Amino acid sequence: MTSQTTAIDPVCGMTVDPAQASAADLGVEHEGQTYYFCGKGCKLEFIDDPAKYLSPDYTPSMEM
Amino acid sequence: MTSSATTLNRSDFPVEGMTCASCVNRIERYLRKVDGVVDATVNLATESASVYYDASGVTPADLERAVEAAGYVARIDQAQTSIAAGEVRARPSTGSDGATTSGQLAGMEAPVAPAVAGGSERSYQQRHLEDVRRRLIVATLLTIPILGGLARMTIAPFLPALLTDPWFQLALATPVQFYAGWPFYLGAWRALKHLSSDMNTLIAVGTSAAYIYSASAILAPGFFRAAGLATDESLPLYFDTAAAIITLILLGRFLEARARSHTSDAIRKLIGLQPRTARVIRDGIERDLPIEQVLRGDLVVVRPGEKVAVDGIVREGRSAVDESMITGEPMPVTKATGAEVIGATLNTTGSFRIEATRVGRDTVLAQIVRLVQEAQGSKAPIQRLADIVTSYFVPVVLVIAAATFAVWFAFGPQPAFNLALLNTVAVLIIACPCALGLATPTSIMVGTGKGAENGILFRNAEALERLHKVGAVVLDKTGTLTEGKPRVTDVLTVAGSPAEDELLRLVAVAERGSQHPLGEALVRYVTEERGLDVGDAESFDSVPGEGIRARVDGREVVVGRAGFLVEEAVELGDLPAQGQELAAAGKTPVFVAIDGRAAAVLAVADTLKPGSVTAVAELHRLGLEVAMLTGDNEITARAIAREAGVDRVLADVRPDEKAAQVRRLQAEGKIVAMVGDGINDAPALARADVGVAIGTGTDVAIESASVTLMSGDLRALVTAIDLSRATMRNIKQNLFWAFAYNAALIPVAAGVLYPFTGVLLDPILAAAAMALSSVTVVSNALRLRRFSPASAASLLEPRLQSAATG
Q1: Which one, B93, B463, B493, B769, has the greatest CB density within 10 A?
Q2: How far apart are CA B123 and CA B127, in angstroms?
Q3: Which residues in chain B have their CB less than 8 angstroms from residue A25's CB?
Q4: Residue B549, CB half-sphere, CA atoms under 13 Å: how many?
Q5: What ipTM was reported for this prediction?
């Protein structure tokens, strides 16, 4: 029962399933948009500094 | 940089909750911020952290708090702490949180093998394996008597009556169901929280149905009689079914876990390559030290027959070193002063001293291990497909199971309830796609490990999969097909020009300021082979891609392409014709004019690597189209291409145009692999479907490449493609076997054959079939371990030939 649409984790670039992510409390709302994360780490990184990860200069990667 | 001798502790503990590599970085950052922590390394694959800290200032509880602050759980109660003795050189970190320091330590992370810093370490894998084994043993011991009861009722009536006593069976079945079978409940629950179902759901539901029914029959028999569901005095029990299913499925899981630890053999072998001690010279004293204590900059002695301890540069002495365990290159490589050596390689008969350049987790070996581990944990696209199929499969099976129950209960012969129950359980069990989850990962692990053994590093499973579909290979000429060291081969002077030596000296002085490889080759030739002194030019001017102009000893010197000289108003006479001849021989002609008059044409050639011709032939044998990419002129390029056997030539390509050329080929509908040196060709490698970096051995983690050939030999590409195809074949075989069992037997389990042949699938047999399919898949995946490079024979041939003729 996984959904067909996918989302991209803005921090690490991994593809996540929004349904599973929101079920696991890995979705965050920011300025009207909901973002989904692969795990707690990326979610917390995002919450710490949303502007950094949403800036067009930021390339999602796993190196920080 | 301060250096202090401190006693450090090292703590290894599991960390839970990580999902991707950025979690790793986050946790490492938080740990390093703790005052007194010198270094922290977190491993995603093993879900553990290794922290080096000053015991006088830091407690494990501090580490736990740091991990929690990062948002994760540290199982500090399971920490293994040991003393990491030795000197620590503290260096400031380069992060924006400038307050942290991290130490430069020797000693490698060994997540699967015993830790090098003393004390043993059990990885997550080991713990999982032991956990499954424990449950399996318990389940087996308890299930046998239960099955004894079944035997007594059917084939062996002489067995003790206790075995069929319902309470006895209940007593044995309960721990099997809830202790041994606990992982299935846990898995089903986790899936349920995400509103999905997986194989654990199937097993949990199936075995619970059998167990609950049987338990109820003992504890509340009246209910069944009253409902008219039972006709006998004693109700049949199905504890044997539930218990046997759990035991058999656990057996499958145990074999899977064991196979996983075997497939890490490649990594364990790699780690085992590292020697335990090194002979270090410090303050004039030569002594043996544990390898963790070797520091960057130390002078290390390597004696005959010894393994090189760490990465370094030869400072004294000379020998031949066998690098096959790292690069896959079987012939020993000569190392003299200034040469780089790799830790864990084997010295042959000479001896030498090196200055250590990389130690501990920075060594090439450590990088390879990390790379392979990450690749082994990664998902291949085909696996994602299998996952999607599974996610639809399970709900469908649940529906079929429900339908089976309904049909049998409503229309089936007596005892309807029992038969319905049995068949439903059989359907649930036989449909379990356990092997499906195994099919791909096991092969991937074996495949990437095999690659590493042969000096081929796949960055991830996707690279391993993509390589098998490649239809065209683009080879960068310089450094891939050719040695990358151009040499001057011909000097053709014009009558009336200065004497050859003088002419060459002028050219060399002029080219001294040039960064161009051709210019460097000219200078090398003049200084090394002609032994002439080369001074400085009075003036120098270069036109990129065309030539240079310089004033040497009052004379005007022009060196470059024919067209460049013409533009400089030089009459070339018949020099261009001579140049064409040289080009047709695969050399690059370079024209020289002194004081406005044509003086000579020089030829510079870059020889093909020994394996190139064979490699191209083998690539053709594999059915691939081979193209060559070069900045050389058309004629020279074609000559070299002819010699190498290449199909297509893309000449006069400027470095920034390479990626576009790759795209052109892709536009023709081909899957393109690009082979280059990883540094200059980075954009083109990134653009290709599979980027292959042909390394020199020490540059392991080439970011832009999906595949790295550590031996620098193009023939390794052939091996890589062979391996990729073999692995994909293996995966497809596995997927077939994993699925075939299920698909074929579901109808049988549902009772489709019953009306015709009276054949039903006993749930126990269903579980046995599932275990068998797991075994089949795992065994087949391990077959891949027998892969060996087909061209191993041809790797030796050319060298034997040259030994005979040379």
Answers
A1: B463
A2: 6
A3: none
A4: 12
A5: 0.82
